[in-house]
Amino acid sequence: MLTVASDIEVLARFGRALADPIRCRVLLALREAPAYPADLADALGISRTRLSNHLACLRDCGLVVTVPDGRRTRYDLADERLGHALDDLRTAVVAVETDRTCGEVDEKGCC
């Protein structure tokens, strides 16, 4: 039985997916068009095994779906609005201090 995720859960899943550069690249590639795993692995220059792990994560997060296509399986974004969200995030202006990196944690526990 499918349930509707809370807003916080949805954002946390999206954040988890975007926390890895390879998953970001996969999502951006799927934003352009659905793809087969072998083609994605070749386009991204990573092993099929490594890609499989990232695709599993993205499926678990609910961001991509599999579409049977004969004997093959194609991947696509779970919702076309995800592509728009990726575009909005990609083009958003992020205010950062030039002398800090996101991984640094300050005395308040923030990066």
Automatic annotation (TrEMBL):
PROSITE patterns: HTH_ARSR_2. Pfam families: HTH_5. It comes from the Bacteria. GO terms for molecular function: DNA binding. CDD domains: HTH_ARSR (cd00090). Residues 3-100 form the HTH arsR-type domain. InterPro entries: ArsR-like_HTH, HTH_ArsR_DNA-bd_dom, HTH_Metal-responsive_Reg, WH-like_DNA-bd_sf, WH_DNA-bd_sf. Keywords: DNA-binding. This is DNA-binding transcriptional ArsR family regulator. It comes from Streptomyces griseoviridis.
